Amino acid sequence: MLAHRGENRPRRPALRLTGDDDIGRLTALMLAQGDRDALPEIRDLLARGMSLEEVLVGLMAPTARHIGRLWEEDACDFVQVTTAMARLRRLVHDLETLCLEPRPVDPASRRVLLAPAPGETHTFGLTLAAHFLAEAGWEVTTSFELGLADALERLRGEWFDAVGLSLSCDVCLDRLVAAVPALRRASRNRDLRVIVGGPAFDGRPDRVRLVGADAAVDDARDAPGIVQSLLDLRIRAC
């Protein structure tokens, strides 16, 4: 069952991780009162031989988690965290523009909608999932609204093969339980696939079943393969 995350996935090479100093500097830039350009810091890491994947997973993801912990410890407020996450998302976009060749839009691309669970504020994992899905050839739409209205409207008006939802903690679990059937009902695709991810699902396949999802992703880099596996299962079933 894909909810158990497929233990036979090939092992990828270990990432070179950045240190606490790098995470601290990037955190300070993201939380600064005025806009500060973090791109020179990242360019330096790339010039020292780090790959874009290593920067995204080894620096930016830990920075997002660190900022989340600062909020939980009341070391920064909601506005600061929201601004910091928006800056991190913009930085990912800038890095994609810097490091990657533009991809032509393929009319035959599979389409996925990514959104946080209702009430969820930790959204950087979705940004990473969007990056790796797009790199794998998916057409990705993201919705970062705290409620479901935007995602529901998109599902009613457009065709999506799958929806990905993120949840970081237990507080919003009940809302996600109610959200998944609502999203399926709204979808133009009667066989919509639903994947979930985030710390709330780490080691908890029972929660994947509870919310009514088809699979869980615990590493954003695995998202393309897992979603494709779900669609392949659907094709074989036909």
UniProtKB/TrEMBL annotation:
Annotated B12-binding domain residues: 109-238
Cite the Gene3D superfamilies for this sequence. Answer: Cobalamin-binding domain (3.40.50.280), Methionine synthase domain (1.10.1240.10)
- PROSITE patterns, alphabetized: B12_BINDING
The chain's coiled-coil residues are none
- Entry GO MF terms: cobalamin binding; metal ion binding
Highest taxon of the source?
Answer: Bacteria
Query: What's the name of the protein?
Result: Cobalamin-binding protein
Q: What broad taxonomic lineage does this protein's source fall under?
A: Bacteria, Pseudomonadati, Pseudomonadota, Alphaproteobacteria, Hyphomicrobiales
